[in-house]
Every structure is written in structure tokens, then in C-alpha cells.
Design brief:
heterodimer, A: alpha+beta, Serine Threonine Protein Phosphatase 5, Tetratricopeptide repeat, 6-stranded mixed β-sheet, 16 helices, about 45% helix, B: alpha/beta, Rossmann fold, 5-stranded mixed β-sheet, elongated
Amino acid sequence: MSLRPLILCTAALWLTGCATSYDLYDARAQFASGAPVQALTTLENADVSGRDALLLLLDKGAIAFSAGQYSQAKDALLQAHDLIEEWDQIRVGEQSATLVTSEWATRYRGEYSEQLWIHSYLMMTFLMLGEPSSAAVEARRALARMDEHESSLKQDWFTRALIALSFEAAGAHDSAQVEYRKLVNDSHYNGQWNQVIQRHSRRIGRAPIDGITSADLPTPNQLGNDEGELIVFVQSGYIDKKQPGDLPIDIDLRIAYPFYPVQNHWKPSLDVLADGKRVAADRIDTPLTDVSKRSLSARGTVLATKQIARIAAKKALVDAAAKEDDVLGGVVQILMFATEQADTRSWETLPAWFSLIRVPLVEGPQTVSLRIQHEGVDKLIELGNFDIQAGQLHFATYRTTQPLPLRDGYFLETLTQPNTEPFELEPTLETLPEQLPET
Amino acid sequence: MLKNFTRTLARATSLLLMSAALVGCVATTRSIDTSSDFHYDASYDFADKKAIVNELTSSLLADARTNNFIERPVVISYGIANETSEHINTGGIADDIRANLLQSKQFRFLNQRQRENLVNEADYQYAGFVAPEERLTEGRQLGADFLLSGTLRSIEKKQPKQWRLNKRKLIYYNMTLEMTDTTTGEITWTDNVEIARESSQPIIAW
């Protein structure tokens, strides 16, 4: 009797593994329970499968950024970008393994949306580090990524506004104007973001853009000569996790596929207060699950084609085994059925919402707070004391989260006392002088 | 006899293959001639920096020798803006250009990066810690005759998605350097260097 099918099946099971590395679960749980530093330590010492190497870097980047560890975030996310570039090849061995197992056998390269958000985080990171020219480099990379997958990514308004802001901060005002204009034309943010464009035009001494009249400009948000601007990056909640779906084809055949659940995430209510008084602000948001859903759908054809090939390969393997021995055929059939698992890996430490708030503030010292109401949280958070300088951009970040739901029973075993209370990470702030105008 | 020979041959071949595999896995280090035109891929590297610096400084020095500049003008460098899609440390280009110009003895440079430290040092000396006769004389710094600035830009094009075995990428770099007269605001000299390179990577790998 030939052992070949059996060996193949054993290898298939070994390869599948069908689980994200435990260290990633641990770190995500620690982050969700309000211990980002501990989560980072876990990730530093993590023993993660090579297939999940990108997830390790993505989680490290998001957690480090949320905890205000910008240098660490920068290193991890730049490595993540390099890894995606390096893995931009079809590996025959890897693809062959997926034919007898599932997509878990591949190296996780991230959805298109996740690849884009690497650059979103890097833009924010470089702005917080006071390196606007590096933020502009990331803006160019983000634009290239958006061009590549335009239909999936064009509705990421937050990242598009961030791209324009990065150009503006780096003094690349022409590029900033182009991106602001595209944003206003494509989105429903016209009225509000027209003011941002006008402020930018005024700051660089340009005439207002055609088609935008003074009637479009409510007076409170105009930036006067004695005003600077505070920009707050807010991350709220958690992105939905991919779920495994099952489609039975026959009594012994099924298709397993990942999908995002249909869930409504309420847009967070965000108010900025300067010295205790609510101030007018311009805001733009992206619901991350929506963009991720589009990205997953964009890969749908490729996934479906591979699924058909996998069914054919598994069926051939079962038939070959059954021809040699009925019992062996049955065993192989069970193994093939068991290895058919949906690849639900994703960047789970992402927030549910990215929000960018621009607040014109009069120059001088100001205590700025953020009132956030989101998914049961109603908090007033002090962002810090800012010495607002006329014509300058000041930056602050904030992340609010809800605890991650326990899953797979794994957290229950590892965290004896999971913290179920919402937690707030320390807000962070940075002041960035406006750069020289582009030459 | 033949059986023994075959077995020995098989063993020898296995040993040879194993040795070859092991040698292939050995980490190696070697020095590269910095003047060589050596590239791993299409992106910016040290050979490009060298080419940019040499070409632009040669051009500027040649121009200075002809007639455009006053005798040993004082220059301040305001750095080189990076407008590429790569995290390139353009400070290295600016430093090398400054070094070449200083070594030519045709230009003098102000240390813009150390200005804050110079002020701190002057404040310290005048705070009473340093004997009056030892203190630096204030108001004796040189004023810049020219500003030196530049921009590094890139355009990257990827081959459109289609049936193919290799993925090709074209990168074009353009570095512009300019001297601006601080009195008149006039750009008195400018030149640029262009580098274009194509790389190809197989789409399928083992």
C-alpha cells in the first residue's frame, strides 16, 4: 500500500495549523485590557510562525502608536512595508500547499486596506515625531497603493485627508491642494472641507480654489492671522474580525470562506473643548470595517478560483487513496474535510473608526480636551496644554477602545481577571512648526 | 564490484551535494569598491549618491571658476528636500556636497545646524563662568552670501497588470541643486542630475 496520500494529508494538517500564533492572541488581549506596554513586551518576545510575521509587525505598530511609542511604531511599520514588498511574489511551494490544505498555509500579506493603513499609521507617526517630510514620503506611498486598488480604497476619507495634511505639513502645498480638491470632489464632505482648503489657500497666500464661494464658508472655522491649528487623530473602538463561513457542496465537500459580519458601528461623537469651551472643528472619518469589506470582496475572484482548484485537488487525493484502500480513503476524506478552514487572519488591533479633527485655535496657551461618546463610553479627556502658535500645526492623538470579546476560550485560560472596563491610553501631543514653502 | 562502485559513487555524490548546500548557507562578508556602479535593485543607493554629489559639485566648481561668483563666497546650506517615495536621508547628499566644496577652497560655509549651540555657548561664556578675556567676541559671525538648497524627486512606474512572468519597475530620480544670492534673491546657479533605472523581478518563485 502506498503511504503517499497519508503523508500528504499529515503534512497538510501540520501546515494548516489553522490558528493565529498564541503570542498574538496574548498581546491583543493585554492591549484590550489596558496594558499596551505589556502587550508590546509580549510581541517583542513573541514566537510567531513565519506565515504570521506581518501580523506581528502590524499589531506591534498599532499598539506602539496608540501607546505613544512612536519610534517603535515607525520601525515596526516600515518593516511591515518592506515585508509586503519582499513577499510580492507567487511562491509555487506555498500555493501547492494551499491546494491540499487551506489559505492558512500562505504567508499573510494583508488585505489591500491593511496595506494602506500601514502608510496611514506611518503618516501619523511621522507627524507626531515632527518629521513632516517623511510623512510626505508615506503620503506618496499611500497614493500609489490607492491607485493600485482604487475601487476598494477610495472611500477611505480619513487617509485621503491625512495624505493632503502630510503634504501640507511638509510644505508641498501644490500636492496638498490637489489632494484636498480631489477629496472634496469625491466625498460628501464638501461643505466642511471647503473650509480646510480655504484655510490652506490663505496660509500659503493663494487665491481660493475655483468653484468655492465665500457663501460656502461659515465664519467660525476660518483661520485668522492670529490662529494656529490643532489636529487630533482619534481611533475609536475595534474593527470587526473576519468570520469563517461554510458552504456545503456535497456530503463530503465544503467551501470555507472568510467574511466580515454585517454590523453597525455608531460613528463616535467627538467634541473639542479649548479652556472648557466647545470649539468649532472640521472632521473626517473612515469606518474601517467598510473599507476592509470592499478589499476582501476585491480579492473574491482570486479566492473563488483557488477554492475551485482546491476542491478538485482534494477530491483527486481522496479518490487516489480510496483506490488503494477503502479505510485509507475514508481517513483522507476526513482529513481533507477538516483542513478546509477559512483564513480569518486580520489586523485585529485596528480601531473601528479613524477620525481626523482640525481645530483652528487662537494663539497662546490653551488647555484642550476631547469629549468622546462611543459605544457606551462617555468621557472627557484632557489632551494637554498647547502653546498655540499662529500659522503652525499642532498634533495630538487619542485612542479609545472597548475590551476585545473573549474568544476560543483562550483568554479565559490565560487572563484570570480580564479587565472588562473601557480603558483610556495616555493622550499624546506634539507641536510641529510649519515648514518652508516648497521650492 | 559494480555494486560497490555504484554505492561509493552515490555516497560521494551525496557528500558533494551536502557540501555544496552547506557552502551555499555560509554567511559571507566582502568589501565593495565605493566607486563601483553596484545596484541590488532599482531604488536609490550609495552609488547614486556618489554620482549625484560628484556631478553637481563638478558643475558648481566649474561655474565658480569661470566668473559667476565672488572670491570665496560664504554659503549656508538649507538642506535638500526629499520629494521621493523613499525614506532617503538627503542630509548625506548635502553633507558630501559641502565637503567637496570646502575641500576645493573656493567656498566658505556657515554651520547652520550648530546655530542654536553657538548661541548657547555664547550665553554660557557671558554667564560669568568664563574669564572676560577668554570670552568669544559677539557680533563677529559671517553673513551668508548664498543659500545652497536642492530637491530630490522621483517618478516610479510599475508595469501594468497583465499576463507576464516578470514584474518590471522603472524609477527616475532627478536632483536639482541651486545657489541663491541672499542680497538679491536671484538664483545665480542651478543644475540637475538625472538617474533612470529599470528593475525586473520574477513573479513566480519557489
